[in-house]
Specification:
Length: 324
């Protein structure tokens, strides 16, 4: 039995870890190119100019980002290095895995329009309120930026020279510089190199958290049985909803995993409210995602993130169970 569980855990670790490594690598490269080719100063200026509406913008951006919870972290790191405020970042982190258009389509396919509309309303509003709330607390600066994320120009191999308005000192040989669009030969050929170098730094920063998350997922798959879930969330009480939200955290529920699982559990007597709470808790703040999010958010912000998602899960379950 122990050998079988270890096999299941190993298979899950390889499956989840391998998939996440590929996804993180691709998204890191995309983030690197986005960072080099999108004028960062203009983007930052727009986001900071409309800082008051940051949580709303973050929630809308999350809606249009069909990534799983783990995949949004490289994009979040990119936002952090641009200087985007924590309210916008937190709203994006909540909205992207919970109420993007792919998730809404899958929830609609299983639960119908009324449940989907309620699910969207509670998750989207929670993303906005959560982002707004964090900006009103002393925790509004609990986000890792610049060197804390490994965003060091020295890592790219560029020489530390004065540029962009400063007076350069004459050198006998041309030196590579870090100025945008500047290279020994052509600035256009330099940007892809800088993008790849930034992607590599980002990938190395995140990959340890990916492996930790995959390990947690493997252990959960092997040792958290469906019978335990059925035993504690088989009813439709408030306690069942709360337990479902909490159980969702150690179970790394990608939406494509959650829907088949919930079909089985609902057929065996699980209430609709606990099912929605499990979806929100599992896809919004699973332990693997918490491990990944910890690479960009500081501890207090991570606590706020978990708390907001769990409250959202409970509220969503109660709304669906007792109001609809």
């Amino acid at each position: 039995m122990n050998a079988e569980k270890l096999t299941v855990a190993l298979e899950e670790f390889v499956h989840v870890g391998g998939a996440l490594v590929i996804v993180i690598a691709v998204v890191s490269v995309l983030t690197g190119f986005m960072r080099e080719y999108i004028p960062q100063d203009k983007l930052q200026k727009k986001l900071t100019k409309h800082e008051r509406f940051g949580p709303l913008l973050g929630a809308f951006l999350g809606m249009l980002t069909p990534f799983c919870s783990a995949s949004v972290v490289p994009l979040t790191m990119g936002m952090a290095t641009m200087g985007v405020n924590l309210g916008t970042v937190l709203s994006f982190l909540i909205s992207a895995p919970l109420c993007n258009f792919v998730v809404l389509a899958m929830v609609y396919a299983v639960f119908g329009f009324k449940v989907t509309a309620s699910y969207f309303a509670i998750t989207f509003i929670s993303a906005i309120i959560g982002g707004w709330f964090i900006t009103k607390t002393p925790w509004k600066n609990e986000i890792r930026r610049g060197e804390e994320l490994g965003d060091k120009k020295a890592d790219s191999g560029c020489a530390p020279v004065s540029c962009c308005g400063a007076e350069p000192e004459p050198k006998p040989e041309p030196q590579p510089t870090c100025c945008p669009g500047t290279a020994a030969g052509s600035g256009e050929t330099k940007k892809p190199v800088l993008a790849i170098r930034f992607a590599w730094v980002l990938f190395k920063k995140i990959i340890p958290y990916v492996l930790i998350g995959a390990l947690i997922s493997g252990v959960s798959a092997a040792y958290l049985s469906a019978e335990i879930v059925e035993k504690y969330v088989g009813g439709d009480s408030l306690l069942s909803i709360i337990i479902s939200a909490v159980i969702g955290v150690p179970v790394y529920l990608r939406i494509e995993m959650a829907v088949p699982l919930l079909k089985v559990l609902i057929a065996k007597g699980m209430g609709l409210g606990p099912a929605i709470a499990l979806i929100i808790g599992g896809t919004g703040a699973s332990l693997p995602e918490i491990a990944l999010v910890s690479s960009v958010l500081k501890p207090k912000a991570v606590i706020a993130f978990i708390t907001i998602v769990l409250i959202t899960a409970v509220c969503g379950g109660v709304l669906v169970q007792y109001v609809l």
